[in-house]
Amino acid sequence: MPPSEVVKRAAARGVKALALTDHDGLSGLAQAHAAAKATDLRVIDGVEVSVSWNAHTLHVVGLAVDRKNEALIEGLRGNRSGRSERAERMAAQLESVGIRGTLEGARAYATNPELVSRTHFARYLVESGHARSTQAVFERFLGAGKPGYVPHVWASLAEAVEWITAAGGLPVLAHPGRYRMEERERATLLGSFRDLGGVGVEVVTGSHTPDQYGYWAKRAKEYGLLASVGSDFHGPRESYRDLGDLPPLPSNCAPIWSRL
């Protein structure tokens, strides 16, 4: 959804504060602020940085960033250039198994042609009849080891935290329950993130199950991290939770918005 539509939907659903956190880009923030002028909604400038750590792709959210900060702008530009190259390679691999036109199809779903992601490819493959759902697309075509999967080296964890901090923002580890890790590796990640300057971790998110809320509340407290809430909303047909639908944080959490 375009940023203006996200803001309108959030306001209509009773949301009072919304951080727009597009992947590796800041271009939607001006549109979000413009749309918010007609509402009571507070828009917080944010971003979601793609990170390569060990064998995993992680996401680090930056909250309350200065969208004019040059260090952040340049860092994100480098990550976006990697996205464009990756999208072209994905399209070529899908064409090699007989699925044509996927790059143009994916771009039609992206509000910014520099930010074509696997999700945009998935939308096109569903709409063009190659799969019944975006989940099925990942299972058949875009997941690791599948025809359209292209690994990529994103920013390092240290770089993502550095860019966000340089822009005056708060680095938050996004939807940690999605990362398939053993407990020891997870502990290493949380400790490294905190020591690099990470401030928060998403506890309640559309990507977590209710059973995970308590687990991540305990981990946040254990590592001295503030707790964040994120819908991870991408669109009404593709997200686990709609805007404004998430429950409150567990009572033992220190909320990230105390710093905003």
Describe the structure.
The structure is a single chain. This protein is α/β, with parallel strands linked by helices. Helices cover 41% and strands 15% of the residues. It has nine helices and six strands. A six-stranded mixed β-sheet has the order 1-2-3-4-5-6. Helix 3 (70-96) packs across helix 7 (157-166). The longest helix has 27 residues, at 70-96.
Descriptors for this entry?
260 residues; alpha/beta; TIM Barrel; DNA polymerase, domain 1; 6-stranded mixed beta sheet
Short description:
The protein is of the alpha/beta class and 260 residues long.
pLDDT averaged residue by residue? 94
The percent range for helix content is: 40-55%
How many helix segments? 9
Question: What is the helix/strand order?
Answer: HEHEEHHHHHEHEHE
CATH-derived topology of the largest domain:
TIM Barrel
Strand order of the largest sheet: 1-2-3-4-5-6
Residue runs with pLDDT of under 50 for 5 or more positions: none
Number of DSSP-assigned strands: 6
Radius of gyration: 18 Å
CATH architecture of the largest domain: Alpha-Beta Barrel
**Which class of the largest domain in CATH terms?**
Alpha Beta
- Work out the strand percent: 15-25%
Largest sheet at a glance?
A: 6 strands, mixed
CATH superfamily of the largest domain: Metal-dependent hydrolases
Helix/strand/pairing category: alpha/beta
